[in-house]
User: What shape does this take?
Amino acid sequence: QKEVEQNSGPLSVPEGAIASLNCTYSDRGSQSFFWYRQYSGKSPELIMSIYSNGDKEDGRFTAQLNKASQYVSLLIRDSQPSDSATYLCAGSFSGTYKYIFGTGTRLKVLA
Amino acid sequence: EAGVTQSPTHLIKTRGQQATLRCSPISGHTSVYWYQQALGLGLQFLLWYDEGEERNRGNFPPRFSGRQFPNYSSELNVNALELEDSALYLCASSFLPSTSGLAKNIQYFGAGTRLSVL
Assistant: This one.
């Protein structure tokens, strides 16, 4: 059974701080990972995708992938109250195009 | 360019009835995915359609079914509704990369249909 696991939180950080969100997965054959942000009652929106080991930066967001340790993380620099949402980690595993989602981590950025 | 559109936005049914949810993918996308998100839970994969065929199915009973039309739009049907079917149903679309590999399979989500079973 392929699994993607996240701490449900809430993770509370002060405005301007770095928020660090983590995700682990069970299948070493995994290929691609995605971070989505979901506001309450809304649909998920893609923030970052990462396919290779290492870091990928896009504005205030940095995704990190370590396939040897089987974890993915998302760093949000200069966190803003508008970043308060649930962050979903998803993996796309070998042999299938479907995503396996984690249960999400709720982030609260305190003004 | 229009994103993924879903209809209706809200649907209220009673136990035992049938529900039909609709999804139109982004233009050019051939794959449609359906997910269920019950309150407080993560997204659970339901079904994947591509080029009119069901390609994969999640751990849901057969009363969850669907189809994809020649224009790549899709329907999700839920028969014999139960109270626990109440959830947000999300549709996503992507194009299947024939040459660029699995890594490019980014899914874009619609706004969802909130199904309430009374």
Observations:
- The mean pLDDT of chain A is 91.
- Residues 28 and 82 of chain A are 34 Å apart (CA to CA).
- The longest strand of chain A covers residues 30-38.
- The radius of gyration of chain A is 13 Å.
